[in-house]
Amino acid sequence: MKAAYEQKQVVIDEIKEKFEKAQGAVVIDYMGITVEEADAMRRKLREANVDYTVYKNTLAKRAIQGTDFEPLAEVLEGPSAFAFSYEDATAPARVLNDAIKEFKKMEFKGGFVEGEYYDKDAIVQVASIPSRDVLISKFMGSIQSPIANFARVVSQIAENKEEA
After folding, report:
1. Can you state the angle between helices 91-103 and 35-47, rounded to 10 degrees?
2. How many CB atoms lie within 10 A of CB 128?
3. How far apart are CA 91 and CA 5, in angstroms?
4. Which residues of 60-76 are buried (b: 16+ CB within 10 A; e: fewer)?
5. How far apart are CA 140 and CA 148, in angstroms?
6. Which of 4, 25, 64, 69 has its CA 20 to 30 A from that of 81?
């Protein structure tokens, strides 16, 4: 009996550690997907550096009890899978949302993004936020154009002064 308790405690500590390290964490109901769909989804999650694991709800509830993640306990009913990202806070929601749309199965239960709890409807909205890299490249593109225009104007002025 003591060995079983120790094994459960190891899992509880693992869950707690993952939540504490994660920038983003999402819980989904994964019922209804086939093995092939699950494999395809896991592959996409791995490519996005998202840690995806199924845990027993009772162990997850014990792991988050007394932490900032405790609001998730309300949604831990039925089958629950957990997706954690330690770099891109919106990656779990984004990748899983694509899988939900593609397979027409599964649904969000809730999650955390940068320490804030989001219910299942809010997680869908979070899923629409582009990755950090995409946002940075869009920002860089938007500031590059005015700078290039300014450089052309300065160049034109310099050429006009040389001709005069």
Report:
1. 150
2. 10
3. 33
4. bbbbbeeeebeebbebb
5. 12
6. 4
Looking at residue 134, what is its pLDDT?
A: 63
- What gap in Å lies between CA 110 and CA 72, rounded to an integer? 7
User: What per-residue confidence (pLDDT) applies to 43?
Assistant: 96
Whether residue 117 contacts residue 110, with contact meaning beta carbons closer than 8 Å, is answered with yes
110 within 8 A of 29, measured Cβ to Cβ: no
Show me where the domains of the chain are located.
Answer: 2-129, 130-164
- Domain 2-129 fold is Alpha-Beta Plaits (3.30.70)
pTM, to two decimals: 0.79
DSSP secondary structure, 67-91, as one string: STTGGGGGG--SS-EEEEESS-TTH
What pLDDT score was predicted for residue 150?
Answer: 73
Low-confidence ranges of the chain (pLDDT < 70): 1, 131-135, 138, 141, 164
Would you state the pLDDT for residue 117? 95
